[in-house]
């Protein structure tokens, strides 16, 4: 999540407000009119972006504990699984009573060369 858009729009809003205030005090009527007309949309956009940013922060902070618990449980499940040994992966001979498709006892899956 980037904070660049809310900061940029907030800076534009502040600059527009300062320009509007200066132009009113300096009797620059056209500049005061233009900056005054752009101030409400910029203010609304700033408020909207700040609300969205706060909601994203709240949503991210409420999901973090659930994800951390999920990672802990999946990590424990990985520890419980037995890793495959090198002899089993290489195609060790079959135990008595097991049937195999080939005479060497390897599985019927094709191996890539």
What Rg is obtained from the alpha carbons, in whole angstroms?
33 Å
Q: What is the number of beta strands?
A: 0
Beta-strand percent range: under 5%
How much helix is in the residues? 55-70%
The main sheet comes to: none
Number of helices: 3
Runs in which pLDDT lies below 50 for 5 or more consecutive residues are none
Class of secondary structure makeup: mainly alpha
**Mean pLDDT across residues:** 79
Distance between the termini: 45 Å
Q: What's the overall geometry? A: elongated
Please give a structural write-up.
It contains 3 helices and no strands. It has helices spanning 4-25, 29-80, 86-90. Helix 1 (4-25) runs antiparallel to helix 2 (29-80). The longest helix is centred in the middle third of the chain and has 52 residues, at 29-80. The two termini are 45 Å apart.
Describe the structure concisely.
The chain is mostly helical. Helices cover 70% and strands 0% of the residues. The chain has a domain of 77 residues.
Question: What key phrases describe this protein's structure?
Answer:
113 residues, mainly alpha, 70% helix
Topology:
Layout: H1 4-25, H2 29-80, H3 86-90
Helix pairs in contact: 1-2
């Amino acid at each position: 999540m980037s904070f660049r858009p809310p900061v940029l729009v907030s800076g534009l809003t502040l600059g527009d407000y300062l320009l509007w205030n200066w132009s009113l005090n300096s009797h620059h009527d056209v500049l005061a009119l233009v900056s005054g007309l752009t101030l409400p949309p910029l203010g609304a956009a700033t408020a909207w972006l700040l609300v969205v940013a706060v909601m994203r922060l709240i949503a991210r902070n409420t999901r973090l504990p659930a994800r951390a618990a999920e990672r802990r449980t999946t990590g424990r499940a990985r520890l419980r699984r037995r890793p495959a040994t090198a002899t089993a992966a290489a195609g060790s001979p079959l135990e008595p009573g097991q049937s195999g498709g080939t005479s060497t006892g390897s599985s019927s899956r094709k191996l890539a060369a």
